[in-house]
Amino acid sequence: MEEQLASLQQDLATLLPQAQTLEELEKIRIDFLGKKGKLSKILASMGKLPPDDRPRMGALANEIKTQLQTNLEARKTALEDAALAAQLAAETLDVTMPGPYIPIGRVHPLQATIDRILDIFVGMGYTVVHGPEIETEYYNFEALNTPEDHPARDMQDTLYLENGYLIRTQTSSVQVRYMEEHAPPFRIVHAGRVVRRDTVDATHSPVFHQVEILAASENGISFADLKGTLNTFITQLLGERETRFRPSYFPFTEPSAEMDVKFGDRWLEIFGCGMVDPNVFKAVGYDPEKVTGFAAGFGVERLAMVLHEIDDIRNFYNSDLRFLRQF
Predict the structure, then answer these.
(1) Do 27 and 15 contact (CB within 8 A), yes or no?
(2) Residue 115 belongs to domain spanning
(3) Are residues 117 and 73 in the same domain?
(4) How far apart are CA 186 and CA 258, in angstroms?
(5) pLDDT tens for residues 220-254?
(6) pTM above the 0.70 mark?
């Protein structure tokens, strides 16, 4: 037995340096010190020894076992230290090296225009509101006093979805949703994307953006308030400009008008506007005998083209970096 224990100690000393991973070392430990390991098999024959030899061999076996455990633990510590050193070497960062080049982003010219417009209206006391792009016919048309036979409801203009839904053709639907949940007085502004069936060319796109404002009160809002608001907005956005209002027609305003702004020797239509039609107030539960208000809206793309002297609306959507880097 003494020879077997010595041989066991020598075998472990030979195998330990060969263990290069903690998994390999664990297999060696189980092979030597496990319940069915080599040491256990040797100790199982202890009962066959003469009684006088058992104390000495027992002490020797315990000494050998302790030595085996010490050697295994030392090898485990060495492997863990080596693994940690390798990890640290692999993850070491040279803080003196320059970082990767990341180009500075730019705000898209359309978003920059929207931000500038909203800032002006917020400065005039308006609250920014939001609404869904997927709408029902009620909010997109009916509540806005648009009869079923109105041309705007034709399939050529509106993209209809399943189950009576559609992609909104105007941001005016947000006004109805807001009025259903809020009582006057208020002044709100909304900017968002709308979709209409249209042929793409230099000045038309089926996807574009609108800004809508709405003011309502029981204290008597007049068309003069509307004109003053729009003229103030144009002055803050474009500077002093000559403007004019022309009679027009919109289902949800009465009277209705279009506001033109003069650029050089030509007039450009900017706003569609008017006093809110009493039928719209009735649809949201307001008393049109008490509540008055005005609404106005315009296309962001047209204004952005004027501000940045862009001659093709498609440039906004082509994602051409040569174009976008100018802003």
Answers:
(1) no
(2) 110-324
(3) no
(4) 23
(5) 999 999 999 999 999 999 999 999 999 999 999 99
(6) no
